[in-house]
Amino acid sequence: MLDTIIAVDISGRHYEDNRYFMVSAAVALSYSEGNIRGIEGIHIIPFSSVKPPEVTDVVHMVEETVEGTGINGTVVAERGDMFNQPEDLVKQMFRVDFKYPESMAEKLGIEFAHHVSLSSRNLLLKQEVHEI
Questions:
Q1: pTM
Q2: Which residue has the higher pLDDT, 129 or 39?
């Protein structure tokens, strides 16, 4: 039986150039017996704010990014992205099922999402195009 999770990571939650420029990435993946079987979809959204994000802002960014995948599944994010709040407290803030990563597949999903959010943020910041 395949399970589906949506791993989320947000890069750029630090003040830089008079703003917080963050990129949220959601990676929907299917897995069974702890092994990733496929990537079902990826969605990325850039966010900007002059104020530091609070946990409710992070919940909003995560939910909006997850909705963009068009896929239902348990949302997985690292404890640090949720300000190290207890999982039970964070679950109450979400409209969808939420958990911190436990299995190898969930941790790898978070790693994929981190690489997507970080590389997307770097690309948007550079905005350089190579001529061919």
A1: 0.91
A2: 39
Q: How far apart are CA 123 and CA 108, in angstroms?
A: 22
Is residue 75 within 8 A of residue 66, CB to CB? The reply is yes
Beta-bridge mates of residue 49: 20
State the residue for tokens 């609070």. 54
Lowest mean pLDDT among 18-22, 23-27, 61-65: 18-22
Strands 74-76 and 3-11: parallel
How many C-beta atoms surround the C-beta of residue 59 within 10 A?
19
- How many C-beta neighbours within 10 Å does residue 112 have? 17
CA distance 121 to 45: 10
